[in-house]
Specification:
With 205 residues, the protein is an alpha+beta fold. α1 (9-25) packs parallel to α3. The chain folds into two domains: 6-74; 96-201, no CATH class. It has helices at 9-25, 39-46, 57-70, 76-93, 113-128, 131-134, 164-182; strands at residues 6-8, 54-56, 139-145, 148-157, 187-193, 196-201. A hairpin with a 2-residue loop joins β5 and β6 (196-201).
Amino acid sequence: MPAVPSIKGRVLAAVVEDIEKLRSSGALRDEELGRWLRPDDVEFLRRPLQPAEWYDVAMHERLCLLLRDVEGGGRSAYLKARGARAAERLLDAGLYAQFEFLNRMNSVKLTDPAQRAQAWGRDLKLLTTLSSSILSFSRWEVERDPDFPSRHRIEIREAAAFHDVLGWITEGFINRMAALHAGPDLFAFERVARERVRYRMRRDF
């Protein structure tokens, strides 16, 4: 694993592509890059990206903030939409085998509330296995919500480097995946401590 908290290059690919589109269209000038990026970030944009390599997650934050401000009007909704589009790309490409459960989600076929809750928890655990393939840090766990026994929440520990930009993007990603069977905007992102992030269900499933 890399020495600094890192993210896989395949996640950065769409970010870099969208920045290049802004530069090519004239919506973003090279002399403006320094408002968001460090010199080594700018140098990174000049080099070929390696999808299987690890890259500093702090650079990912700066690149996404650039896109949020230039293309998204500074809105967190833009970051959520990016996460949703990332989920759609993965589903369309069939890239991750663990997402096959979305086509056979057992929890929607059960009528007993307790059985549905148990099956939903198992399905969420499959979804969270993706984290270890794209992040070199953090520990994801699915738990029952103590305030709502029929709901689950996703707890991300050791998450000091899990910046809020990534938090909003991940909310969009998770909600797009869950929307196939549970409707839109099921989970809400919150940082409950410096090293702890939570995604909590807004309603019963």
